[in-house]
């Protein structure tokens, strides 16, 4: 439904992978028929979990190795998997799988990461939290912390949000003398919800690319499913915060002060004078809200408006690439240049922020390879036929598969990209609306955060940053994530009946 003047899709268009040919050229022709392909799928997923959990192999390497093994075992030839050295018409499944998903995801994650870094270094997060604390007062400080995590979590990654906002949690808990759980759990709920349900975070963006859904629908359904989920998590936060007392960790308070001093020194070394005036709250909210409003406007212009020049303009500015670029440029000017930053400083902060992104992109790309191999080899179709015979709705299956993968290996991103590859053929069989597929993505994302425990890096980050014992972390953080997961899935399931 794009305009004839501008046919730029908001969602990824992943190049079609080769259809599964007769298994005549495979290096390891080990299987034949549906039963054999299902065996390959089961062994492949089991091998993936063993490599990540037991062998502690990097998820990118594990996904790549399992993808190759599954493809060869299912009968794909070496040429089909890797292409040929000479130019030919052969399409490499590995290249098309990785290139198709990263062509969309890499740009969005890169722009989102740089935007978050500028907001972090400029003090936007600190201003947001401080203003909300002053607005709500001491009695409602937990709610203020929750809203801080919810708003600031949109443009920044989960771990960055903890690093930036933890000192504010320490201050609020120390001032009140109450358990730090009462303040950190609402904050973590907001950060976790946005990380799981909303672009530009890797999970929902990757799933949107793999399942060909416009990001506007993902944002809308993420808000609709995520808000009730985070409200349920806040209720649990208030309950557990009154029953388990955890003192403010003094060592982390001191470390936070040292980190803040280090940031100031780094700013000075980069030629940036430390800020004298706080960033206006309206500026922070405006920068965060700009890409969301533009993307949503473009998504629904295709429904509400007939093809026209006006709709083309809206779709142009609402494409994720353009919308995030506009937000980043606004941040550069309003939070940087306008406040005395040099262009060199902006470059330094932006470049530094991209260093941790490489691992995320490689894992997402390898997940795209896994999905492409499943499709090209016929394994995905065999899984689709089997799941159809089970009789469970696809949205329920998506959630259950994601939960199993999450609990087994710990990584939410791996759970999302693997589940999306498995359920893609189930969705391809029917004529599902964009809204329904976006709800399936919400179910997958909800499953990917269920029961964070000792095999999840986030578990240890929460425990160490806020001085919580392992047992109390299981009682608080692990249950909090499960509440978010179940509540978000419940909303998605109910809505799926109507769309």
UniProtKB/TrEMBL annotation:
Q: Does the keyword Metal-binding apply?
A: no
Give this protein's Gene Ontology molecular function annotations: gluconate transmembrane transporter activity
Task: Name the UniProt key words of this record, in alphabetical order.
Answer: Membrane, Sugar transport, Transmembrane, Transmembrane helix, Transport
Regions crossing the membrane: 27-53, 59-79, 143-173, 180-198, 218-236, 284-305, 317-335, 356-374, 394-423, 435-454, 474-498
One of the Pfam families matching this protein, by short name: GntP_permease
Against InterPro entries, the record matches this protein to: Glcn_transporter
Keyword Oxidoreductase among record annotations: no
Q: Which GO terms describe its cellular component?
A: plasma membrane
Q: Could you identify this protein by its name?
A: Sugar transporter
